[in-house]
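Protocol step 4 of 6: structure prediction from sequence.
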Amino acid sequence: MDRLHAMKVFVRVAEVGGFAEAARQMNMSPPAVTRAVSALEDFIGARLLTRTTRSVQLTEAGQRYFEDSKRILTDIDEADASAAGVFAKPTGTLTVTASVMFGQIYVLPIVTDFLDDFPEVTARLLFVDRVTNLIDEGIDVAIRIGHLPDSSYSAIKVGTVRRVMCGSPDYFETVGVPREPSELAGHRIISSTSAYTSLDWRFGQTDKSSVQVKPALFCSSYEGVISAARQGWGLARVLSYQIGPDLLDGKLLTVLEDFEEEPYPVHVVHPEGRKASAKVRSFVDFAAERLRANRLIN
């Protein structure tokens, strides 16, 4: 008896609720399906299915064996896919998503370098400031900022980003540097009109506090917020990655660092686990290495 084959036959019979349908789906004759299940029951020494003229039902032992068999067969399929993927060559279309600014600044250069290394891959980039559904939208890989909900997706942490207060050197020279959050009332505030933006700004990790701000300027995009801060018009609160290049160039400076909230994790997420295709696994490894090496998100 081919035990693995018999296990697959048994699982299919249990799933479809009949020998004839299982035989049709597996391209076998009904007697062959019956013999495979009977041989498995003889080997185990327990009846797995209760047969009637109209239906097939799992016995108590059969229910347990069915659940264990499905898990074992899934593990075998994933092991086969993983081993095959090691030697597979990345090909096809790779779809990657990230938030707009993070995608444009950090993800786009990684993707173009990946395409240079793997010319048989083409890429589709979806940079949007909303939570995407990887399965429904046909997305292979997502770069997510923030704490992840529990899910079956595979996630690799590659860094962290902070929510920071920033302004230009000229602004601080003219107006002064706030030493604690309560002093923000004496400064001009620039804010985004994003749906995720609150005017109740929270500070601190252990001793938490909040300040209700009254922005003098609202912008519809964080690019606008940062541009106004860069020009010395006022203070802005953004995520550290959004002003990474400006911090390196000295065009913007951060303040109130001792009052920052807990950093947000950055993850590379994909839905396929060990069954991921060669293009996905190769890109996940490639992107994770590049992002971890980027000091602006670590």
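Step 5 (inspection) to follow. The mean pLDDT is 90.
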